[in-house]
Each structure stands twice: as C-alpha cells, then as structure tokens.
Amino acid sequence: MRPADRGSEEQTDEALMLAYARGDASAFERLYARHKGPTYRYFLRHTSERAIADELQQDMWLKAVRARERYAPDARFTTWLYTLARHRLVDHWRAQHGTRFVSLDDDSVEHADAMRAAGDTGDDSSDPLGQVIDGQAGRRLLQALDDVPAAQRDAFLLHVEAGLSLGEIAGLADVPAETIKSRLRYAYRRLRAALEDLQ
Amino acid sequence: MSDERRRDERAGDPAVDAAWRAASRSEPPAHVDDVILAAARAEARAAAQVRKAPARKAWWTGWQPLAAAAGVFGLAFALVQMLPREEAARVPVVESARAPTETAKSGDSAPAATSTAVSAPAPVAAPAPAAAEQSVPVRQEAARDMSAENVVQPSTMAGAAPPAPAEAAAQESPDAWARRIAELHDAGDVAAAATELRAFREAYPDADGRLPESLRGWAASLPAADPP
C-alpha cells in the first residue's frame, strides 16, 4: 500500500464523516466500506431475514446520509451510527407488532420468543443464514443466539460486531454499565453452552 | 479506554468470539450498496452546489448595507437640496425680472424704469389683458411667482397687473421714451424695443411720429398690437 493510501485508510471515522458533511463523497465511500458489514449483520442477526435486513440497512444509512450536517463528533461515530441502527430496528418491530411495542431492553425469554416469531421463518433448514455460515459451530451459534433475549443479543451484537465498549453500549441503551455487563455474561454463557458438546 | 476494553474482554469469551467471527461474514447485497452510495454522492453534489451558491452572492451581498446607506443618504440630500430651493427661487425671480431690463437700458433713464417696474406696481383699476401684454414678459412671470412678502405692496399685486403705460408715461416724457426705444433698437435688443414701442403706442397714439427718423421704417413694419 502506498503511503498516501495508508494515510487515507488511517483517517478516523469522525474525520471521514466530517469530510463527507463538507461534500467529500469519497469519504463516505470509505466510511461505508468500513461499517457496512457490521451494521448489516447487526440487522440480520436481530431479524433473521435478509430482505428485512436489506431494507433496514438501506434506511439506516440513508438516514445517516441525510443527517450528515447534524453530526457532531462529540462521541464516537460508531456510537452515533448504532444509535440510528437501534432506532430503526425498534421502529421496525413497532410496525410489525402494531400497538404492542417491543423493547430492546426487555430481558425476558418470552420476549425473545416473540421477536423470533416475528422475524424467523421457523424452519432452520430453509434459513438463508444457515447457508452462508461456514461450519457447524457457526450454525449452532446462530441458533443459540436466536434463543437469547433481545436485550442480551443486542448487547452481544453491539459488542462483537460494532466493537462498542461496555460504557458505550450502556450509554446507547440508557442503562447502567453493570446491566450491560450482566447481559453480556448471560449471552456468552448461552452461546458457550451451545458450543460445549462440539468440543 | 484501554481499561474499559480489558473489562470488556473479561466479560466476553475468546472461543465464542472466534467462532462468531468465523461464522458471521454476511455482507449487504450489491444493490443495497449501490442505492446507498448513489444517494450519498447525490447529497454530496447538492451540498457542494448549495455551498457554492452563497459564495457567488457574497461579493455583492457584502456591499448591500453600504449601498443601502448611500442610497438613503443620497435621497435625503436631494430632498434637503430641493426644499430651500423653492424658497430661494422666488427672490431670484424678482432679480431676474429686473436684470434684462437693466441690461437693456443705458444712461440716466435706466434706474427710473427699473424702480417703476419693481416698486411701483400698476393700480388695480388699470389691469386689462392688453396692458398685461404690453409689459415685459419676464416681469409678468415675476409677478406670477412673487409671493406677498416679496412685493412692496401685496394688495396691489392681487390684480396681477403690470404697471400701466399711462403711469409709465406719467413718469417719463414722450421724447425720453422714444429715445429709450431707439437705444434699445440700436443696442440690438429689437424685441425689447418692439415691446416698448407697443406700450408707447398705447400711451401715445402718435408714437411712431415721435420716434427718430431712422426707426420709423422699422416701426411701420410692426403691427399695431400683439396678436391675441
């Protein structure tokens, strides 16, 4: 890689977003290339349907495009981006469930079942996610994640996909950091249990 | 931040994280990428155009306040200049009415005629259209414009009548009048001479006969009175 290229690669997300707000379209292209996979997988693991994930991904990024002038780098770009993602996800669930609002911060197993019923096809063999996952461990992980309550799943996805810290996830969910830590611990425990019999 | 990361790592499980990263590789389809990137480029172009537009306007919008102030100042100056001129215009009219007569005259008769024209307006009983026509045109204009305070006897100006030939004749002998007409004519002021001759004729029916011999031919060419 040439030094100039390396320099542009090393630009922070915040600098790229500010450059885009000033009209630099290439800055947005680099930003999108960095984050399109994690945001897409965030939606996909929450909804378990590619079509819905496509729609949410598109909506959320277009919202980011339109909100570029309001973006202020007082927090990490990733935190701002996943705030938009969470809001879009909640809007989706609210529309799916009508007046019954489903919160991402509900830790109950019943809630996880409701979420799965809304988004899952119910047939593991026809799940497109299963076709793209390489290996049995991956498939088991995904199945196990479906059984994890939405709040724990959200904390796990924000942790492993978005790379957010405990404090950032807590700020985003507006709950104490200890709550997030506990949610992560429970989520990891379930996922580890799903992998145990393979070892 | 690094402490936070270390706490996060303790909260996670390296085996689970590794398995997750190996399994979770889904990417958005190309058509979603295309829509998002196209929208982003369009917004960037629009933003660039919006940013350019004010820059073009900036060079003159910066001068707008100065131009407005200059316009207001100019208008105010023009108004102030116009107001006193209306007052001042009345006095010079009197002066201008006097001036042609003075320039046309020469010799001892000039001051007498001037004082007659300005300070001794015609009596109210005298006015007649013919009499008005016989006076100097400039004097008519001056009489029209003059306000009450600019004349010596405002009540006499109400009739708007110029000094009557009879009164002029009373103050000037026929021979002196005839000499003055000759002087005007000789000085080249034929129009003034003609005007005076008409007034002279009104006052004296045998006016042409009182003129010097050299002017009689010219006087004969003039009609008896101005056409209406």
Could you please describe the fold and organization of this structure?
- The complex is a heterodimer of chains A (199) and B (228).
- Helix content of chain A is 71%, strand content 0%.
- With 199 residues, chain A is mainly alpha-helical.
- Chain A has helices spanning 3-9, 13-21, 25-47, 50-66, 77-96, 109-119, 128-132, 136-146, 150-160, 166-173, 177-196.
- Chain A contains eleven helices and no strands.
- Chain A has a single domain, classed as Rna Polymerase Sigma Factor, Chain: A (Orthogonal Bundle).
- The longest helix of chain B is centred in the first third of the chain and has 32 residues, at 30-61.
- In chain B, α5 (90-104) packs antiparallel against α6 and α11 (174-186) packs antiparallel against α12.
- Residues 101-163 of chain B have low confidence and may be disordered.
- Chain B has a domain at 90-221.
- With 228 residues, chain B is mostly helical.
- Chain B has helices at 2-11, 14-23, 30-61, 64-88, 90-104, 109-119, 129-134, 137-145, 154-157, 165-171, 174-186, 190-203, 207-210, 213-221.
- Chain B contains 14 helices and no strands.
What can be said about this structure in brief?
The complex is a heterodimer of chains A (199) and B (228). In chain A, 71% of the residues lie in helices and 0% in strands.
Main attributes of the structure:
heterodimer; A: 199 residues; mainly alpha; Rna Polymerase Sigma Factor, Chain: A; 11 helices; 71% helix; disordered N terminus; B: 228 residues; 14 helices; 74% helix
